[in-house]
């Protein structure tokens, strides 16, 4: 068929969680966008567990939402069980998690894509990325169609040379029932990108009709589920429970006996798997003293009986799978509908990317999602929207959007990827964020709404709402430091009524709120009405007051280091020629090519003395 | 995170700009916006003035603002930007060259919130602020590199042995606790037991004790860190030089661990009981000296006054002619050891009676420098006098570096906050973890950072994670 008559500004390859956000972002920013997928029926497919969010991931979802992404709205409409995790451990580690109806989820996302202006959605497998003089010019599909394009965003997930394992049998494909993409790997390599091999796994899917839920511990969602999106008013879909069961010693015996057919333990699988999500055979071998392992039985959808047994990903032979499952309480008669399997796939080493997610080798070629060595829908979506925003910035000659490690988990994610790279599927944890107290779910909108609006991804209306919330928080905080409680008899009496210790001296309301047992809920009883401010404002106020000194300490640290983030390296910096740097440091800098001194300082092996030397060289160049 | 050691500009820094053992004065140099304010807090000019004139020396005293005690007499010069080495405000405090006053002034300045300078930082600032020609950029980069390397080797050496063992111990405990906390925070849906916060608080308190103790050794350890100056004084021809040679000869195999130590016929550095000792031979003290000699005598007396320790040598054959009352005028009490030399020339009985003329309570040792009798005894006595019963280097770790000290203090602050959070119910996990992270990061300044990846690795190795 030859060349397609339309030149797109953006072509996105792959319609998973990264691709959907990337395509929506560029289309919403007004760029003509083409989204290509190997299968239009598996858009935004949840290849593994049917859930969105979790620790640190919930923060990512809310950040994507604050920038104008779709994931949060999608799960709010299709979630069937919402829970806020770590409710009592502190606001910085509170994260939302929801079970999704996986079919509803992908249908919703497909509809959003279809209805999006400037966005074309087509089914085709891309065989080749076409580039000339270090710059992309389009993509070529399996049907021989050439789509000219100014930028290309690769979001191919696990599909590059995907190889699935069940026992010692292998099958090509990026996901059970789907195709394997072969041409693109070679195409990326020919463009100069280095590829590596990773592995991940998924559990068998079970027939819920053959599970005996009686006697299993149910796990219900929250009574008042909190939406992910700042734009969702409430969750209306009926909520369903999950169930908890455990493996037993008998299960472990069967697993151990089945190891001779394990592709992991017989050396068939070469790729590196994630440590935080080991297969059940891994858990049994590595923690022999553990007598049982927990399993969550999660519904996949309201339209199917299929159950996702979270906690037993496996690539053991199908025979072993069914035998070990039937030793588990509730699963004595279980039937497997789809086997568990491991999948190996190509990924591109992410240190080959700029912090914009653009390839250092090829101009206007962006990579996002699992192809960069990450794992998780949320990590993928976060990269997707950032690749979209930066592709648009590049096309328009605008400043790129690079989020700092103190701005967002998205910033931590991308900085980790492009500065350190990864050797296993990278997943976000709150412990990766040095400014964890700043990067909360509750303030994601306040942290990012201005950036989302500037890029044209938030409506004026939404911008105004966020700006208003910000002003109101400031006003309430000021009021709290001005209003005082005096130890007069009526005040003391009221304090006693609400179970609070009497005052020894006059305090302002901020000081009162810093009492561990006090909260904004006490304020109406002390004559401070909550109106006209809504719960979101008060939540923010309470956290900011109670955590003030800690938050200030982190902000001080951020400010102290801002200078380094602002000292940018020229693109043509020749690190090998710089004096005062060891050979090792020179090599590291050449490899990573940091954008600024801050990033340079985070490269392992780059010493403070080397940073001092770099400052001197930067100064010298700047003065020329 | 390599945060704290990054080369920040714009804050105020301080360093001792005269190396140990060189010259009779020590210079503490402060550069940055808070230099003048800091000087005003610590320096009390003899003639009080509203505002210091730039580039002019003032005479006065350095006082500890906490109790207004005098630390040393000093000259202070304030040089306002931009006509200074760094093009920032610079204050120099010129004090007595003994290690103790220099160190105490440095500590006072640091206690006012001034940061100890990174290696080569004055030069780097001079460059960054355009004071040094751009052509010299490479040279400046090399200087910074070289100084850092030296400082690193030096700090490493200070960390050898018991000290790093103890800090490492604290760090391991911190890592364990942080791992437990992070696992609890990051994996709420795993089948993990809740941490026992009473036990955690107990361990934090143990660490507080250990860190506090380590930090306190800094004050006691100045001897080991900075060494002492030991002046050999006395009237002419009592055998001072011979004694110096004997003492140095005896110890010559031991090399001073400190850099920049000058060696000439007047000064020799040795290590006694692990303490760097700078031995200074002085001109003989006499009253009927000619003009030139008188100057030498005056110099000797000044050296004796500012010395950390005095060996006052007397001639056993002329004990009666010593005017002890005058000696007591300048000999620092509690820091003086009388050495009765030339005992080979007097009969034991005469010596015994001669000793009776010494003021009571003054420690004394009888030797013959020429025949090396009693020298062993003298060495032991010096060591005993220097160390007292304060420290035993072999059995205890001591903090000797002001930077390490600062890091330990920061660690201590964070641990104290952590202990408070661990007592709250419910425990604010995010805050407790933040405090533990800060404590760990502070130790990282001494031992190298602990990355989040290390903590995660620990979690995956220890706990079975994998919902």
Please report the total strand number of chain B as a whole number: 13
The H-level CATH homologous superfamily of the largest domain in chain B, spelled out, is P-loop containing nucleotide triphosphate hydrolases
Number of domains of chain A: 4
> What is the number of helices of chain A?
19
Spatial extent as radius of gyration of chain B: 27 Å
The CATH architecture classification of the largest domain in chain A is 3-Layer(bba) Sandwich
Structural class of chain B: alpha/beta
Mean pLDDT over the full residue set of chain B: 80
The amount of beta strand of chain A, in percent, is 15-25%
What is the alpha-carbon Rg of chain A in Å?
26 Å
Structural class of chain A: alpha+beta
In CATH, the architecture of the largest domain in chain B is 3-Layer(aba) Sandwich
Per the CATH scheme, the topology name of the largest domain in chain B is Rossmann fold
